[in-house]
Amino acid sequence: MVDLSRHARHISLPQVGITGQQKLSDASVLVVGAGGLGSPALLYLAAAGVGRVGIIDDDTVDISNLQRQIIHSTNNVDKPKSQSAKESINSLDPAIKVVSIEERLTPDNAIAILQQGWDVLIDGTDNIPTRYLIDDACSILGIPWIYGSIHRFEGQVTVFNHNDGPCYRDLFPEAPPAGSVPNCEEGGVLGVLPGVIGSIQATEAIKVILGIGESLSGRLLIYDAEGMEFNTLKFSKNDDRESVSDLKMVTEMFDSSQWCSPDSNTFKIDNGQEVKKGKVSHEKIMIAEITMEEVIQKRDNGWSPFILDTRSEMEYNQARIATVDLHIEHGRVQSIMNDLPADRDVLVYCKSGVRSQMAIMLLAKSGFDSSRLFNLSGGILAWHAAKPDEIIN
C-alpha cells in the first residue's frame, strides 16, 4: 500500500501520481555492489518507494570506503556491506523489503539470483568480468540493466537490454586485456563522482519502472566533473552479433587466471572500459588504445605521430605535452579535419583517456581513417608520470 504522506511529492507529479507510485511500490530492483555507485542508487531507490530492493556484495566495509560509499558509516566498519546497506535502507523506510545477499555474483549463481523476480538491475560493480556476466545473464532472462562506471573525475552511464535495445556486448564487444585498467586505489576517484553517476542510475531505473521519459538506451552519457560537462555518444545494437544463450563465454573469463587470480588488480576496477589497452568497437569503429610505454617504444623506433590535445582551453594553458601539434576541445574536433596530416598517425590525448576516445569516434564518423588514430590510455597524466620533463607547465 502506498504511503501517501511519505511520497506526496511524487504523487503530485503528473508523470507519477498514485498509479505510478504503486508501480514503484510493486517493483523489485537488484543492485550488484554496495560500493560507490550502489550507495546513492540504493538510497534513492529506497527514498523513491521501490518496494523490494536486493543487494549483492561479498565485501566488508573499510574505512577507506567512506570517502564515497555514503550508505555506510564509521560504526559499520568491518561489517558486511550488504548488511550495512540494509540497515541504512530500513532506517530510511522500514517498510521496504531488503534482500541481502552476502555473495559475489558468479557464473555459478547468477541465473538463480537474477531469477528471483527482479524488474531492473543496477550495476554497481567494480570489475570487467562481472559486467559481462550481468549483461549475458540479463540478456538470457530479459532483464533491463543500468550500467555505470567511474574513473578519477569522469563517469559513464547507459541502459542496456531495454525494449530490445543494445547490450553491453554491443558497446564493448571485446574486454580489455586483464590488468590493463587501473583500479580505484591506483587511479583515485573524486568522492562525489559516484554520487552523481549512481543517482543517474537510480533515475534511469525509476524511469524504466514507470515507463516515462526517454531512457539512455543506445546513448552513453559521459560526465566530466572537472570541466562540468555532459556529453552523449550514440551506439546501436549489432544485429550481426551472435545472441547469448548461455554463460559459456563469461565463464571462461572467470576461469582465467589472468582475470580472476587473487593477485590480479582487475577485481578492483571502478571505471568501466574507458582507459584500456587494445581495441574497442563503437558502432563498428575500432579505436586503437596505446599505453605510454608503447608510445616510448615506438618513438625509439622512429615513430613520429601528430599529437592532438582534446582538453579544454584552461587545461591546455595549465599544462601540455611539449611536442603537441594542435589543440582543440574534443567536442569540436570535426572542425579541424582538414588540419590533420594525411600521411602521419595521430596520437590523441586528454586528461585520462575518455574525452580523447570520444574525439576519435567523432573524427572516424566524419570519415577520417580510424586506423591512423591512437588514443593515449591515461592521457596526459600517464605522459607526465613517464616523461615529466616533456610537459610544459
Question: Would you give an account of this structure?
Answer:
The chain has helices spanning 8-11, 17-26, 38-48, 81-92, 110-114, 128-141, 168-171, 184-187, 193-210, 248-255, 257-260, 292-300, 313-318, 355-365, 379-386, and strands at 28-32, 52-56, 97-101, 120-123, 145-151, 154-160, 219-224, 229-234, 278-282, 285-290, 306-309, 320-321, 326-327, 346-349, 373-376, 391-392. The protein is an alpha/beta fold and 393 residues long. The protein folds into 2 domains: 8-267, NAD(P)-binding Rossmann-like Domain (Rossmann fold); 278-392, Rhodanese-like domain (Oxidized Rhodanese, domain 1). It has an 8-stranded mixed beta sheet, with helices on both faces. Strand 5 and strand 6 form a beta hairpin.
Instruction: Output mean pLDDT.
Output: 87
Oligomeric state of the chains in view: single chain
Radius of gyration over C-alpha positions, nearest whole angstrom:
22 Å
Biggest sheet character: 8 strands, mixed
How many structural domains can be distinguished in the coordinates?
A: 2
Distance between the termini: 61 Å
CATH topology of the largest domain: Rossmann fold
* Morphology call: elongated
- Output the CATH homologous superfamily of the largest domain: NAD(P)-binding Rossmann-like Domain
CATH class of the largest domain: Alpha Beta
Query: What portion of residues belong to β-strands?
Result: 15-25%
Report low-confidence residues grouped into runs of 5 or more: 260-284
Strand pairing plus helix content: what structural class? alpha/beta
